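Progress note, sequence design subtask.
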């Protein structure tokens, strides 16, 4: 009897030992999985172009990514445990951001902001972003994620465009100078992101004949119709401009920008607007295109030249048919 009890106890202890060993193995697997996930999230955080800061519920900085360090000149160690609103934002901006943090603590959702931040050297950056709350199961604020981007150059460019009268008086589109500034910036962005852009070059057909036969006022109406049709055909994010007397250009995202489809849509839009205007003559555009594909991206001048040459070839081929 005693021997049987001993064997049963030994068996029980062996089972318990096996169970504990399996539990330990599961803990090791979970720890490795968590470590892998932490490493992945850390890699994402460090590789992001946007500014990312992690704050605790009281607004103290727990972690920043490499983009913040490069832009501000502060290291992660420099910023750790410091109050966010008293460290990076300038005094005028700190009040609004402090109010945003207070609202998050009271249960509000994400708080968008635009403010100036000061670097370690005293330089000012114009930053736009948001404060996003992370809450526990009870709704209490545990962390705040600050995501933002430096819009200093973009705002300076916008101000420069306004200062230099970048719009065409007749059509309201960008003029040649305004187009060049915006297009150069868009091309730089596309080289960094690896995206493809398409240049559209459009020429008003028979504008001289319209002016001669119906007067310059009719020619002006035709130009305005073309401008509105181009705006309606392309996206708001595409850059549409009038760069000469009868010449229009568009720098557009490449997707869904097949030339034949664009030509058809543009012709339909022009036909509709011409009919609605009551003009006694047709208004049409001949277009050409060129694409800039990284890593062999073209310069703005090369894109314009190629699109212009393609447009001229199309116009030349169409001329005998219209005569």
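Output:
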């Amino acid at each position: 009897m005693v021997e049987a009890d001993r064997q049963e106890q030994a068996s029980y202890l062996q089972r318990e030992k096996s169970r504990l060993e399996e539990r330990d193995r599961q803990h090791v697997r979970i720890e490795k999985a968590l470590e892998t996930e932490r490493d992945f999230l850390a890699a994402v955080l460090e590789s992001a172009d946007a500014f990312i800061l992690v704050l605790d519920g009281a607004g103290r900085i727990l972690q920043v990514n490499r983009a913040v360090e490069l832009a501000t000149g502060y290291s992660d160690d420099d910023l750790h445990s410091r109050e966010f609103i008293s460290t990076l934002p300038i005094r005028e901006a700190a009040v609004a951001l402090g109010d945003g943090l207070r609202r998050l603590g009271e249960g509000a959702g994400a708080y968008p902001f635009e403010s100036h931040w000061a670097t370690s050297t005293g330089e000012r950056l114009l930053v736009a972003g948001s404060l996003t709350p992370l809450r526990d199961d009870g709704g209490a604020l545990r962390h705040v994620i600050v995501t933002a981007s430096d819009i200093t150059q973009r705002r300076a460019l916008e101000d420069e465009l306004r200062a230099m009268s970048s719009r065409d008086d007749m059509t309201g589109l960008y003029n040649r100078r305004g187009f060049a500034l915006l297009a150069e910036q868009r091309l730089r962005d596309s080289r960094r992101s690896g995206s493809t852009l398409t240049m559209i070059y459009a020429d008003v057909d028979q504008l001289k004949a319209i002016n001669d036969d119906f007067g310059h006022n009719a020619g002006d109406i035709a130009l305005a119709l073309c401008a509105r049709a181009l705006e309606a055909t392309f996206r708001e994010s595409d850059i549409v401009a009038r760069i000469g007397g009868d010449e229009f250009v568009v720098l557009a995202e490449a997707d869904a920008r097949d030339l034949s489809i664009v030509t058809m849509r543009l012709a339909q839009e022009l036909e509709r607007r011409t009919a609605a205007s009551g003009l006694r003559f047709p208004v049409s555009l001949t277009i050409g295109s060129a694409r800039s594909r990284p890593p062999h991206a073209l310069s703005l001048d090369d894109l314009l030249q190629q699109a212009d040459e393609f447009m001229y070839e199309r116009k030349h081929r169409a001329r005998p048919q219209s005569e």
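The chain has a mean pLDDT of 84. Work on this subtask will continue into the next period as scheduled.
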